[in-house]
Amino acid sequence: VAHCKEFFFCGQEPFVADEYIERLAWRTPGGGSRGGEAFDPKRLLEEFVNHIQELQVMDERIQRKVEKLEQQCQKEAKEFAKKVQELQKSNQVAFQHFQELDEHISYVATKVCHLGDQLEGVNTPRQRAVEAQKLMKYFNEFLDGELKSDVFTNSEKIKEAADIIQKLHLIAQELPFDSLMGFCCYPLSSPGKYHDLECQLIQEFTSAQRRGEISRMREVAAVLLHFKGYSHCVDVYIKQCQEGAFLRNDVFEDAAILCQRVNKQVGEIFSNPETVLAKLIQNIFEVKLQSYVKDQLEEHRKSDAEQYLKNLYDLYTRTTNLSSKLMEFNLGTDKQTFLSKLIKAIFISYLENYIEVEIGYLKSRSAMILQRYYDSKNHQKRSIGTGGIQDLKERLRQRTNLPLGPSIDTHGETFLSQEVVVNLLQETKQAFERCHRLSDPSDLPKNAFRIFSMLVEFLCTEHIDYALETGLAGIPSSDSKNANLYFLDVVHQANTIFHLFDKQFNDHLMPLISSSPKLSECLQKKKDIIEQMEVKLDMGIDTLNCMIGQMKHILAAEQKKTDFKPEDENNVLIQYTNACVKVCGYVRKQVEKIRNSMDGKNVDTVLMEFGVRFHRLIYEHLQQYSYSCMGGMLAICDVAEYRKCAKDFKIALVLQLFDTLHALCNLLVVAPDNLKQVCSGEQLANLDKNILHSFVQLRVDYRSARLARHFS
């Protein structure tokens, strides 16, 4: 059995029956598990039977042991339960004792409290009687006129003396004067003694402040808190704080430094530091700042509007900046409203009519800038045409005379100045900045619009519009020789200036009106200005007539009839005519000038119109000559050069017109037998037959029967 027990419990792993049988068979001789041994089933069966018997014996022993342990466990459980019951009974007894003790303690505490109330009821009248006795003693000293008590004679006990006199003063004031007691107490109720002590305390506070004794100042301020002269103590403190604080030229910086210093100190002295600090700030604003602002502004208010506005803007800005710094301090519940009222009290008389001063100054300053410019040019401004956009459009449609009358000579002057524009925009920019700072929020959009209107009047109307009108009047007639076309220079400068105007509109005006009904009004005004200027630029299309006129003069002067019908057909050495060279050079200059003078769609519009007129001129010019075979080749070379020039326009229509003209010129040199084929080509097939015929007629051999027969 011992061997079986050892074999059964040999492993620490969980019991597995298959492994157990396998181990048993392996250990049995003849079990067949060992190598080289013959299998003996009888021997193995005998071993299994013996082993089963051993297991049965071992099972019986273990079962008996388990039963014994169960009986022992049940016995111990009963004993433990009995012990727990006994402990519960003991706990209940202890809890009852605790409740009795708690009730007894509560009873004793109630008795103690009652006894304390009784003692207090007895002690309080006693203390009052003692205090009354002391007051009566001090009262007798006042009646006798001899203050012998140490509390009155010792200067270090001024706090106790102040408390006594304060009480006697209140008692004396409650007694009627017509009674005997009231008459006797009159010395105490009269201001004399009370105020003498107040003055003494304030003097002590002042001396302590000069010595820098914060603790003594706090003690005296605490005593004075119950006296009527407490506010005078605060006033003295504020006055002495400012002594020597405003010695520099920058009163705003001095004020900020003073308030920072006092803010750190006032909480250690007074029980209501926010009230004292607020009173100091109010005193600084109402006395120092208001006086300083008045001195700075009244000096220039009527004599120098520019300096007045600059000073007003600067002073208001510095005051609001100071207010922002003071917002960091504790000044009570609504410090924002408190500081705003102080600022308003200083500047209200100056802000009420600010915009009128601003507009008046801007108007006079802008007029002076313009007049100074025209005086430097020795130019007397002419009256320009008036009228709305519809009137301008009607003038454009009818091509009526320009408002300045007959053509005038501007001597190449555009009457536009970058310096003038920069000065006007700078003045307006400063006006917008002042308007933003100084205007009431409800009046800001309206005031900004008035400033914008002044800019429109002097920059757009009096300067740009006047220059355009003058430029229009200076456009020479189409038959003028060697005419200088300065209108494009005017357009170029006006375009540049308007971009600057538009930038200021977006950068400085829009933020001021973006959320108000004035926005649509300003946008409409700007739109009207743009449309009015575009109409006048369209009226300047007469400049193109002058260009074409100049080109006509070049062609008339340089083109010779012999160019296209040379005397010696075999001795032509040029690739294109001199007239073509000069016209192409002139056109390229004008195209470049147009591109530099305009932008956007205006460039393409003007170049298209110029290109169409250029084509018509060359077409009509070629119709004036007769062409030999060699002359026709030279004409084709000229048109090819004109076509190269037309490419600079970068307008598809213009290039197409010159391509067609080049194809038409081929009719001047093509063999008679090929005329019909050429006329039916892609570029000429859609043209009117009369146009084709007109070009064929320009050939010197047109009257030959053969050519006429082939073209018929």
TrEMBL record:
Exocyst complex component Sec10-like alpha-helical bundle domain span: 160-711
A biological process from GO: exocytosis
Domain Exocyst complex component Sec10 N-terminal: start-end pairs: 41-149
Alphabetical keyword list: Coiled coil, Exocytosis, Transport
Superkingdom in the source lineage: Eukaryota
Coiled-coil residues: 52-90
GO cellular component terms listed in the entry, alphabetical order: exocyst
InterPro entries xrefs: Sec10-like, Sec10_HB, Sec10_N
The keyword Nucleotide-binding appears for this protein: no
Pfam families in alphabetical order: Sec10_HB, Sec10_N
Family: Belongs to the SEC10 family.
Stored PANTHER family: EXOCYST COMPLEX COMPONENT 5, SEC10
Protein name: Exocyst complex component 5
Gene symbol of the encoding locus: Exoc5
